[in-house]
Design brief:
The chain is mostly helical. Helices cover about 75% and strands about 0% of the residues. Helix 1 packs across helix 2. The longest helix has about 55 residues.
Length: about 500
């Protein structure tokens, strides 16, 4: 199970690395004209830049040049491809299963990196970026669903969470590789990852849940035996799987699934709750912080160039990602969400005050604390992958019913990429309207809202069977109405009121 989760995560590392780099490029290109000009001149081998920050191996390879508008399209088209990739994964997962979906998505992934590596014009680069985003968004829900369905409840959290540190390792690796190799060689080095994933998947069965839904009971037994071991008695677990999918059909067409999603409460409730959590996660400022972090590290590092600064930032994120694995095994999902959101919110709040004091020369105490912004950046970037920016992806496999899991997971990823586009595009307007400090305070408010939302609506799923999690959503909001023929009860005592108050919180326990 560990090796299966590892190779799935490895295959997405290259595309998710492109997504993170894409957001930084997009923020740079959209928000600061001077930085736009710097990227433009760097790509076109200008001699006006500081010689200490030029990767000469990259600037020598210049088959074509780009202007500022084309650069923004290279950065932004990745997200456009991700929206379509999320929608396609909703179809592929239901129709062909999780394993075959990952294999099919490897085709646009490989083509995308090869197009980027061999691009001789802007059209080839845009096509490669679109396919890379398409594959990245398609991988994400299928990986989480596959790993969630083949693992036991007590191991589901940390195995699903392996995608977080492995993605961070991929980002750090590509920053190092990109600072030494030409950009086309760096892109070409990503193409073996999906090929390795396809080879490894050939030796594994698909999810037992998908086989059971498809009526292939014997193959479902063989798949479960492979993932649990031949020396283990799996009859009870197999019986639970059949009971869980009893009466459901996996073959749900896209339009039919959309109708069921918005008309049946057992689908709509978890969909609304998880997408609201994704919305709060994306508006927590993670991608804006990534952009400002390099500037702050450079400020405190003196003559440190941008490549080394990016590597340091990636290493800090890796530390938080590695801490996530033991924490998700020991503590509940809700506790990690609350702790992570609280640290992120406080860090953003203090960082906003620091920016306000430097802009308006007030709050002299904060103006003299030059170390405080650095502490805020480090604490924020360590805390983000420990909960709020990682656990929502695990919930894709835990919240959604099996028969609609691929469809709802794909829609969630598509909507999250659309929300990410909104966050990126609204950043310059918010920055102009309320200033840098106001934007960070707004993101801090989103983090604190995530705490309240988690306490109010998010159920605990650690070490719980998927069927029990589904029952929690089915019971949410139900009211047991009294019959008019029952003898009225006396007025409630203080003890009974306390019991009633306790029962209303059982959902989030």
């Amino acid at each position: 199970q560990w090796s299966c989760s590892w190779i799935f995560s490895c295959a997405t590392t290259s595309t998710q690395t492109g997504e993170i780099t894409d957001v930084k490029m997009n923020l740079t290109a959209a928000y600061h004209f001077q930085d736009e000009a710097g990227l433009y001149e760097l790509f076109n081998n200008s001699q006006l830049l500081d010689q200490s920050v030029i990767n000469y191996s990259t600037t020598r390879h210049r088959p074509y040049t780009i202007d500022l508008e084309e650069g923004s399209w290279i950065a932004g088209i990745f997200g456009l491809g991700a929206i379509f990739g999320g929608l396609l994964s909703a179809f592929l997962g239901n129709r062909y299963g999780r394993k075959m979906s990952l294999i099919l998505l490897a085709i646009p992934d490989i083509l995308g990196w090869l197009l980027v590596a061999s691009s001789q014009n802007i059209g080839m680069m845009l096509a490669g970026r679109f396919l890379a985003g398409f594959a990245a968004a398609g991988y994400s829900p299928n990986i989480q669903i596959f790993v969630g369905e083949i693992t036991q409840p007590q191991h589901r959290g940390w195995l699903s969470g392996l995608t977080v540190p492995i993605t961070a390792i991929g980002v750090l690796t590509m920053y190092v590789v990109g600072s030494w190799l030409p950009w086309h060689f760096a892109a070409a080095s990503c193409s073996p990852a999906p090929i390795l994933m396809v080879i490894c998947l050939m030796f594994y069965w698909d999810s037992p849940y998908w086989y059971a839904h498809s009526g292939m009971d014997k193959i479902a037994h063989e798949a479960l035996e492979q993932f649990r071991g031949s020396d283990t008695n799996n009859d009870q677990e197999m019986f639970q799987i059949f009971q869980y999918i009893k009466g459901d059909s996996e073959s749900v067409w896209f339009v039919e699934g959309l109708v069921k999603l918005f008309t049946e409460k057992k689908y709509l409730k978890p969909f609304v709750i998880l997408n609201s959590l994704f919305f709060l996660m994306l508006f927590s400022g993670k991608f804006a912080i990534n952009f400002y972090a390099v500037e702050i590290v450079q400020h405190f590092g003196g003559n440190m160039n941008e490549y080394l600064s990016a590597v340091i930032i990636a290493f800090i994120s890796l530390i938080g990602s590695l801490l996530f694995i033991p924490l998700v095994k020991r503590f509940s999902r809700k506790m990690l969400l609350i702790f992570s959101s609280f640290v992120m919110g406080v860090s953003l709040l203090l960082l906003g005050f620091c920016m306000y004091s430097h802009s308006y020369h007030s709050l002299q105490v904060l103006s003299d604390c030059d170390w405080l912004p650095m502490i805020c950046i480090v604490s924020y970037m360590v805390a983000a992958p420990m909960g709020l920016c990682s656990i929502p992806f695990i919930y894709i496999a835990e919240f959604y019913p099996s028969e609609m899991r691929s469809l709802m997971g794909g829609l969630t990823i598509a909507l999250s990429n659309l929300e990410l586009f909104i966050v990126v595009k609204t950043f310059p307007n918010l920055e102009e309207l309320i200033g840098d400090h106001g934007v960070f305070w707004l993101y801090a408010f989103s983090c604190f809202c995530a705490i309240i939302f988690t306490l109010s609506y998010v159920p605990e799923t650690k070490d719980k069977e998927l069927a029990k999690v589904e029952d929690k959503f089915a019971k949410l909001g139900k009211v047991n109405r009294a019959s008019p023929w029952v003898t009225p009860l006396p007025s409630p005592s203080v003890g009974s009121v306390r019991k009633l108050h306790f029962k209303t919180h059982l959902f989030t326990k």
